Each structure stands twice: as structure tokens, then as C-alpha cells.
């Protein structure tokens, strides 16, 4: 395959379509990654891969690993024994004398050949069983290893598109590759053992036969390696288009987009895009298939030719009487055995090489991802704090060109309701996420009673914060789990949390109450409305017994009654907690202890409602605008 990336889907000017908005996909750094796929690089890495595979196997099932390996070795020994015994059989059968005598003379060797064949079959069946038990465990272990890391890395990692792409690659192919590399490693060992057995047998028969045997394998090995490398490079080249077409496929089939797709009549637009992008991948696959047919054919032809040469050499040895007929007969058998073992070995090495490239993706990702884990921290944060101080905090999202927060300083005192207001994109949710310790400031710090959160254990801090997120998750679980989440399930607490935003009314209508599944993909489930989901999300925040509660637009989808209930609940029940409240409905924050106004990532004004209304500024403007909308005649 040509080693230049295919034309970018975005710049496909020949499609004949008018200029359509596209998803603006990015390519991986192809040249750099392709360089790592060179055979010499991989050959050098192969021992490390095998070592890694064996370690994985050992951790997943030490007993099965040892059993698989030792049974395969024993099976190889019986292959050699069978081959050597064959010479005895042939020598006895080809000796001079009456046939019954010759058969009788061959009998002990024949029994040995038969016994060795039975033992070899039984041993390799047992080894296969142990291997079959091992592989699923390896896969599970690798997936666990991956999810352990992905669930703990800092949230900012997800905003780094390159990192996210590596994650997708590791998850999509890397974990399956681990299982395959383990299986290939066992196959390499098996094939190598039986090849070694046959090679020993052949060398015992005549030392010249062994190098000849290697010659037959070379063309096949060359072809196999080339095919694998081309396939991997094609996969690399098309990472962008495959990613793009998977996204388009989702847009065309996912329930979330189904309504919009229809109401905006986007079918043809999306289908055309899909066809265009998928077409690039299809063409790359076809080009690869064409190229690989030629490579394989050349390899097979070369191997065939080399095999012919080996048999001619054998004939010449026989003709020159350098080899007795019985030995030549065994040699033919041994050559066949070793040819098939060598062929298996080549395929296993080759598959290990190809899957090893994916496993390397996975291992590299894991290595990088581990550097994104929060450092272990011994500093305790106070469970109940007196103040939280935000000191000169600035923050830019990874890849962002503008800071989302600039030199923000403010103080939250225990028991206060602190409101953050500002126009869209002014940095309210970002500040909320920093307060929830989901992101760390680029400069400045956040202190809980003097303890810098950067030095504290992230999990422990988060355990003290309840978040009602603006873009809250709709967990595909029951209503109960959606509120209780990973907390202790307590009926009284659940009732109180449910009353805070009218979630109890929602649950009362559900066919199975709290135990109703809230995802249409499951049987007997129920689909909630946007506002009903928001009530669930609000109750989540109320359920968590945390001294700091952050409510980011908690009422944007609520009806007037639920909104009233919620803000009443915040005023009445949150007095022992500190509340950070973000809302565009300014009437709801009139009673906040302090209001901070954010503009372009900066705090431009702070004070109570009355103080802010008493002076010119964004808050007063926005408030009056909303009030006017209510006051204006219908
Ligand atoms: N994950 C992200 N990656 C990159 N930039 C982001 C991300 N989230 C937000 N931003 C950017 O940071 C800025 C502040 O966003 P933020 O979500 O904090 O605004 P907001 O005040 O909460 O707005 P809204 O009222 O619309 O909720 C915006 O310019 C936004 O584009
Ligand atoms: Mg926001």
C-alpha cells in the first residue's frame, strides 16, 4: 500500500456535492506511527511483547499458563519421538526377508509411533483446554486494567482530542489484541516446539536437510509479514475516516438524534456524507485486498519452488547413496511435519506482530494515561470547612485558545448560598467544576480551610461535594440508582431528597416506582421527560450528604411549581450546607448571601442582590430585562 494518507474526507472536492458542513476530523500523526510499524522495530519489540503477554497470562491464571506451556512442550517431545520411531518402522519394512517377518520386526517401532501420536494428540487437546480457559480471563483483566485507569484519570484528559482518540483505539482494538497476543504466544511456543522436534529429527537423519527446510519457509514468511504490515498501515491511514463514519453511523441510527434527524429532514444529507466517508475506507480496503493477493501469491509461489528444490536435493542424496531409503522416507515425513510447524510458527509470529502493534497502542495508552492519574496525596481535607478560598485562579481547557477563567478570587463561607451569574460562556460552569475538584487550576489555588486542593486526595475532596451538573448524566439504571448512585441506600434520605424537587411525584407515576429502569433500551423501562430527568438530577444532589453542594442550572427544565419547590428546599434545607447556585433566572437568587457576576472568565462584580441592583452593571441590566419581560402586558 502506498504509504501516504488517503485524501482527507473533508477535502473531498470530487464528490460533486455542494459544500456541506462536515465534522472536521483530524488525522493521527501518521508518519510517526507508521515508522513504529516497521518490521525491524517490531521484531526488536517482539520479545518484549511475548514477555508482556506471558505476564498478562500469568496474572490472569498462573495454573493455566503453566499447564498450557508444559503440555505443549511435552506434546512437542512426543512429535520428535514419533518421527524418530518412524525410521525404525521404515527400516524394518524395507529390510530384506519375508513380509511377515518384516512386519513383526517393525511392530515395536509401530507401537511407539502409534503411542506417540496418541500421547501427542491428548497432550495438545489438554493444552488447548487450558489455553481456552486462559484467554477470556486475559481479556477481562486487560479491560479491567483499562477501565480502572479511564475511570480515574483527570477529567481534563477527555478534553484532549489526541488522548481521547488514543483511548478509543486502546478500547476498540487494544484489549482484544491482548487476548490474541497471549494466544499467539502460546501458538508460537507450540509451533516452535513441534518445529524444534521435527528439526532435531531431521538433523539426526541428515544435517543438510535442515537449512534446506528454512529456505522453503522464507518466501511465505516474507509474504505474511508484508500482508500484516500493509493491513496495519491501512488501518492507521483510515483511522480518521473510520472514526468519522462511526460517528455518522451513530447519527443515523441513535435514538438521541432520531427526532432531530427527521424534523430537520437530515436523512439525505447524512447518508451522502456517510457514503462519501465510508467509500474512502472501502476503497482503501479494496486496494489492500488487491495488493495482498499479489503478495500472497508471490509468497506461495516462492515457497512451492523452494519445496521442489528440497525434494530434488533429497532425491540427489538418495541417488548418491548418501541417504538410505528408510531415512529418506522419514525425512519426507519430518519435512512435512516441520513445514507445517514452521508455517504455523510464521503465522503465529505474524499475528503476534500484527496484534502486537495494537497491543502496543494499548500499552502506550495505558502508560500515558497513568501519567494523567491524580498523584497520591496524603493531605486530609476537612470534612466540614469554615471557608473555601478561590485565590487568583486561571484556567484554560486543554486545546482551548482563550482562558475560561482569569484571575478569579472569591471566598465561600460555610452555610452561605453563593450565586454565580453571567452570560453564556462567561465561565460559571467552569468555576463550578474547579470548585468540585473536577479540574485543577492552571495557576492560583483553591483552599479548604487553608488546605490547597492540589495537595489533597481528589476522591476524598469529591466525596465532600454534591454536584447537580448542567449536563447531568442519564444513567441507564433504575430511578433509585439514579438518585442514590454509589451511596448507601437509605429510604428516609431518599424520601427527603425526592421531595426537594418534586421527584416523588415523578416516581409515583412510574410503573415500578423507584425500581423502574430509566432507559428505553431495556425491557419494561420508562422514558422520562427533560424536566423529569432534571428533578432526578436535583434529588441526586440533595441525597448526597456533602457540606458543599453545587447546583449548575438546576431549574432550567423545571416547571414553575417544581422550580418553586426546589428553591424553597434550597432556602429551608440547605442552611447547614454551603450552596453554589448558578442560574439564569435571577429572581431565584435574590436571597443569595452573595452574588458574583462573571464576564469573559473574570469576576466583575460581587455583592448581595440589593447591592448589585443599587449600581450600574451587567447584573442590574440582566435583572431588569427579565423583570420587564414579566411585567410587560401580554
Ligand atoms: N470541555 C471544554 N473544552 C473546551 N472549552 C470549553 C469546555 N467547556 C467549556 N468551554 C469553554 O469555556 C468557556 C466557559 O464555559 P462555561 O461552560 O464555563 O460557561 P457558562 O458560563 O457555564 O455558560 P452557560 O451559561 O452557557 O452554561 C466557554 O467559552 C466555552 O466554550
Ligand atoms: Mg454553564
Secondary structure blueprint with pairings:
Elements: H1 30-35, H2 39-60, H3 62-94, H4 99-150, H5 161-205, H6 209-237, H7 239-253, H8 255-263, H9 267-319, H10 325-370, E1 387-395, E2 405-413, E3 417-422, H11 428-435, E4 443-448, E5 451-452, H12 458-463, E6 465-468, H13 479-484, H14 491-499, H15 503-508, H16 530-543, E7 548-552, H17 560-573, E8 578-582, E9 594-599, E10 602-607, H18 609-613, H19 618-631
Parallel strand pairs: 3-8, 3-9, 6-7, 7-8
Antiparallel strand pairs: 1-2, 1-4, 4-5, 9-10
The structure holds adenosine-5'-triphosphate (ATP) and magnesium ion (MG).
Magnesium ion (MG) is lined by residues 428-429, 470, 552.
Work out the radius of gyration: 35 Å
Q: Which H/E pattern describes the elements?
A: HHHHHHHHHHEEEHEEHEHHHHEHEEEHH
CATH architecture label name of the largest domain = Up-down Bundle
| Hetero compounds | adenosine-5'-triphosphate, magnesium ion
Could you give me the name of the CATH homologous superfamily of the largest domain?
ABC transporter type 1, transmembrane domain
Total strand count, please?
10
Q: List the total number of helices.
A: 19
What can be said about the biggest beta sheet? 6 strands, mixed
Number of domains: 3
**Mass-distribution shape:** elongated
From the N-terminal CA to the C-terminal CA, the straight-line distance is: 69 Å
Q: What is the arithmetic mean of pLDDT?
A: 85
Amino acid at each position: 500500500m502506498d504509504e501516504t494518507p488517503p485524501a482527507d474526507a473533508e477535502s473531498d472536492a470530487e464528490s460533486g456535492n455542494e459544500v456541506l458542513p462536515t465534522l472536521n476530523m483530524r488525522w493521527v500523526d501518521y508518519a510517526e506511527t507508521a515508522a513504529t510499524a516497521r518490521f525491524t522495530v517490531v521484531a526488536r519489540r517482539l520479545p518484549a511483547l511475548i514477555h508482556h503477554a506471558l505476564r498478562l497470562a500469568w496474572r490472569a491464571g498462573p495454573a493455566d499458563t503453566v499447564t498450557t506451556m508444559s503440555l505443549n512442550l511435552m506434546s512437542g517431545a512426543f512429535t520428535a519421538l514419533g518421527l524418530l520411531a518412524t525410521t525404525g518402522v521404515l527400516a524394518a519394512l524395507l529390510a530384506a526377508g519375508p513380509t511377515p517377518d518384516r512386519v513383526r520386526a517393525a511392530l515395536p517401532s509401530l507401537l511407539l509411533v502409534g503411542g506417540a501420536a496418541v500421547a501427542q494428540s491428548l497432550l495438545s487437546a489438554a493444552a488447548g483446554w487450558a489455553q481456552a480457559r486462559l484467554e477470556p480471563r486475559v481479556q477481562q483483566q486487560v479491560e479491567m486494567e483499562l477501565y480502572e485507569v479511564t475511570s480515574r484519570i483527570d477529567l481534563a484528559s477527555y478534553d484532549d482530542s489526541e488522548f481521547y482518540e488514543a483511548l478509543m483505539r486502546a478500547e476498540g482494538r487494544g484489549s482484544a489484541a491482548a487476548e490474541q497476543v497471549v494466544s499467539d504466544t502460546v501458538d508460537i511456543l507450540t509451533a516452535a516446539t513441534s518445529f524444534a522436534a521435527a528439526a532435531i529429527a531431521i538433523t539426526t537423519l541428515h544435517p543438510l536437510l535442515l537449512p534446506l527446510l528454512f529456505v522453503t519457509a522464507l518466501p511465505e514468511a516474507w509474504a505474511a509479514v508484508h500482508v500484516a504490515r500493509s493491513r496495519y498501515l491501512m488501518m492507521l491511514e483510515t483511522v480518521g475516516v473510520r472514526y468519522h463514519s462511526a460517528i455518522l453511523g451513530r447519527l443515523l441510527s441513535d435514538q438521541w438524534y432520531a427526532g432531530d434527524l427527521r424534523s430537520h429532514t437530515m436523512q439525505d444529507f447524512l447518508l451522502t456524507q456517510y457514503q462519501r466517508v465510508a467509500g474512502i475506507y472501502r476503497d482503501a480496503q479494496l486496494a489492500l485486498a488487491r495488493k495482498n493477493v499479489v503478495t500472497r501469491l508471490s509468497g506461495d509461489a516462492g515457497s512451492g519452488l523452494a519445496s521442489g528444490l528440497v525434494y530434488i536435493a533429497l532425491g540427489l542424496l538418495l541417488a548418491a547413496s548418501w541417504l538410505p531409503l528408510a531415512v529418506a522416507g522419514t525425512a519426507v515425513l519430518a519435512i512435512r511435519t516441520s513445514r507445517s510447524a514452521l508455517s504455523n510458527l510464521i503465522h503465529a509470529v505474524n499475528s503476534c506482530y500484527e496484534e502486537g502493534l495494537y497491543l502496543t497502542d494499548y500499552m502506550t495508552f495505558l502508560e500515558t494515561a497513568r501519567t494523567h492519574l491524580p498523584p497520591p496525596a496524603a493531605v486530609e481535607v476537612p470534612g466540614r470547612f469554615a471557608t473555601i478560598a478561590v485565590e487568583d485562579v486561571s484556567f484554560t481547557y486543554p486545546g482551548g485558545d482563550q482562558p475560561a477563567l482569569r484571575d478569579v478570587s472569591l471566598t465561600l463561607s460555610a452555610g452561605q448560598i453563593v450565586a454565580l451569574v453571567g452570560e453564556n460562556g462567561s465561565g460559571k460552569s467552569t468555576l463550578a467544576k474547579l470548585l468540585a475538584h473536577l479540574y485543577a487550576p492552571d495557576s492560583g489555588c483553591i483552599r479548604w480551610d487553608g488546605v490547597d486542593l492540589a495537595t489533597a486526595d481528589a476522591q476524598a475532596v469529591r466525596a465532600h461535594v454534591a454536584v447537580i451538573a448542567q449536563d447531568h448524566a442519564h444513567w441507564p439504571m433504575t430511578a433509585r440508582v439514579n438518585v442514590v448512585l454509589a451511596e448507601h441506600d437509605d429510604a428516609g434520605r431518599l424520601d427527603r431528597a425526592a421531595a426537594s424537587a418534586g421527584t416523588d411525584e415523578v416516581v409515583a407515576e412510574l410503573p415500578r416506582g423507584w425500581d423502574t429502569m430509566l432507559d428505553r433500551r431495556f425491557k419494561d423501562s420508562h422514558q422520562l421527560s427533560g424536566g423529569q430527568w432534571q428533578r432526578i438530577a436535583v434529588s441526586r444532589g440533595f441525597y448526597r450528604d456533602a457540606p458543599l453542594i453545587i447546583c449548575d442550572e438546576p431549574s432550567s427544565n423545571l416547571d414553575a411549581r417544581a422550580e418553586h419547590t426546589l428553591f424553597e428546599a434550597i432556602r429551608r434545607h440547605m442552611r447547614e450546607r454551603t450552596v453554589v447556585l448558578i442560574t439564569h433566572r435571577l429572581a431565584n437568587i435574590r436571597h443569595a448571601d452573595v452574588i458574583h457576576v462573571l464576564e469573559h472568565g473574570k469576576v466583575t462584580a460581587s455583592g448581595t442582590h440589593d447591592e448589585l441592583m443599587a449600581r450600574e452593571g451587567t447584573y442590574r441590566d440582566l435583572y431588569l430585562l427579565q423583570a420587564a419581560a414579566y411585567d410587560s402586558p401580554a
